[in-house]
Amino acid sequence: LSAMGEPSMDPTISAADSTAQQDSLFSMMDVFLISLITGLFTYWFFFRKKKEKVPDLPRMPTVVAPVRDNSFIEKMKKTGRNIVVFYGSQTGTAEEFANRLSKDAHRYGLRGMAADPEEYDLSDLSRLSEIDKSLAVFCMATYGEGDPTDNAQDFYDWLQEADADLSGLRFAVFGLGNKTYEHFNAMAKYVDKRLEELGAQRIFELGLGDDDGNLEEDFITWREQFWPAVCEHFGVEATGEESSIRQYELVVHTDVNMNKVYTGEMGRLKSYENQKPPFDAKNPFLAQVTENRKLNKSGERHFMHLELDISNSKIRYESGDHVAVYPANDSSLVNQIGEILGTDLDTIMSLNNLDEESNKKHPFPCPTSYRTALTYYLDITNPPRTNVLYELAQYATDSGEQERLRKMASSAAEGKALYLSWVVEARRNILAILQDMPSLRPPIDHLCELLPRLQARYYSIASSSKVHSNSIHICAVTVEYKTKTGRLNKGVATNWLKNKVPEQNGSSSLVPMYVRKSQFRLPFKPSTPVIMIGPGTGIAPFMGFVQERAWLKQQGKEVGETVLYYGCRHEHEDYLYREELARFQKEGVLTQLNVAFSRDQAEKVYVQHLLKKNKEHVWKLINEGMAHIYLCGDARNMARDVQNTFYEIVSEFGNMSQPQAVDYVKKLMTKGRYSQDVWS
């Protein structure tokens, strides 16, 4: 048979031959197969892509990132301290008081240290009893609506959740608050109460400072009774008179690389030349002023609307947030201080902390020039506190002037009265004091050590990011007044902002700023009615609110009633944003616009009078519409008067007694339906 065209086998071949041939054929096949298998195996073994063998290197020890030393106990033991003074500070005053208390300690044979609670683990409070004669003091400011300051937020959260046994802890609390605010000294009261609940022993009563009165006097009065209580508790005595101890030493740089010198930056050197997000208090963004226009038609005051360009900054904000601005002092004031003290203001220097263990190496960014320090870093316009006067007294060559300064810094009633009248009420800043005391000529480096830091100024943002995502609007009025001594005092930030003229890439129109989040928020549901009360520059956040409600309406959302109560002195003088508000009303976004012109008639009319006039509608919005109420402006009079008006409306239409009405409004606050953004 032939298969597949192959030649058929010769029929003459014998069977034996055939068998031998087959054996030979199979042997060749076996050899072929074996060779093939061997070849494939050899290839697989030698030429396959081998998995790289990991070299057997000696095992390296695990590198752990250095842990920040956040144990204040270990630091106190290492440096021989037994008193720690924690501060919750938003504007620097609580920090200043903490520093003063920690310096006081040496007079009693004790050693103190001021500490930022943000930098330490406060659960270590339970270990403070490991240190002999130990004491924790808390200088706590209250911020906003009874909130902790930014740097005390973690401490507050810990206190709320803590289940620690603080039975070995001895403590005292001094609070910094303002009686014009609803939640006066809420943070200090809470810390004082909570520490006691956790078993700590209070060695002196809670001090409540009132910035609406005389905070400095409140602090001195508390302090002069606090130290005797400490002495009695620990069985120690004062070692002598209060002495002037320098905290920093001066180093003058004669040969310095100017690229290493601070020129006004708040944190990182050259941060204004090389901007990097995220932007915050220690790393502000330099925003260009793109618009600066006067809002009022006439009158003595200057109201202004500014727009800051935040393009490419990655800064995000919500309606109701605050913009913080770092101002600069007036160059003429700086120059006058330099002239009086006979100083070359362009000298490059550093003030270095004599306590090498301190977290605070310098009082402000160093090295820098005296000019930069007095312009960007130090507060030269507010009346100095008594501790500054005490330290400066030694430099007065006239005995009468020296005695006067020491008296004002004393705790005697006569000294307090003199300080109140000659410094506080006369609004004498450091320049005025130097001018009125010709023999007082302190070294400029000691003056720079004593003056408090120049603080950022906060403004309610007058725009909505839904409409203006790349700009932040500010509404402000310049502060300017005559003092009892006949001097013209000007507000630092508002007069600085007034001169920020928009120009192409000009440094003169740059503003260092950052955004601070707020709880002042529109309702989650756009259909919820809102009642906004904001006379004067209190209109600012409501411009943002109304812009946002207009945007929501354009998106097809159902927007609830939007009612505004605004007030100013004269209709044709200081009616801010008149055209814009009229347009919003015409478009139906502002469902009601009520304006009180306080001085256009014989009898003054304020926003609370208009609320009373519309009391039935106001109650209907609150009771049936579940409206949210917003209040912005002066805390001292307006906010209180408006709140009292709401008590009356609730009492009348809700058929409640006065205490019940007060409780009703307080509950609105708790539920976030009555929000305030006020200042004093």
From TrEMBL:
Q: Which residues form the signal peptide?
A: none
* UniProt superkingdom: Eukaryota
Say yes or no: keyword Oxidoreductase present: yes
For the biological process aspect of GO, one term held by this record is: response to hormone
The UniProt record lists the EC number as 1.6.2.4
GO CC aspect terms = cytosol
Answer yes or no on keyword Endoplasmic reticulum.
yes
Domain (FAD-binding FR-type) ranges: 282-523
What protein is this chain from? Answer: NADPH--hemoprotein reductase
